[in-house]
Design a protein that fits this description.
Shape: globular
Order of helices and strands: EEHEH
Number of helices: 2
Helix content: 10-25%
Structural class: alpha+beta
Strand order of the largest sheet: 2-1-3
Strand content: 5-15%
Largest sheet: 3 strands, antiparallel
Number of strands: 3
Radius of gyration: 12 Å
Length: about 100
Amino acid sequence: MNGVDYSKKTVPADYKCGSCGATGVKLWREYQTVSPALRCCNCAAKEQGKDIHDIDANGMRLGKTDQIGWYVPAVPDQEGVGYWGYTSVPDAGVRWWKRLQTKP
């Protein structure tokens, strides 16, 4: 796992969808897992059986949630140790994730 510089729109080399291989886009991770599987919105929706036709540029669905089933936004920490807890992501990390393209 590589760290990330939140001031740039670049992603760590290993920040890619584990299903389709998409890179440079928002990814979601399994909630409360130590070594989470990362998924793009399309693959997360398919695995979770969720409709994401209304997902927006900020990764929000139904105008109120950024979760896709049991998947939550995957925001890597700056040290490259892991991913922030869902409610612990610093503001700079949230802004970094929102700047990424939503769909591959």
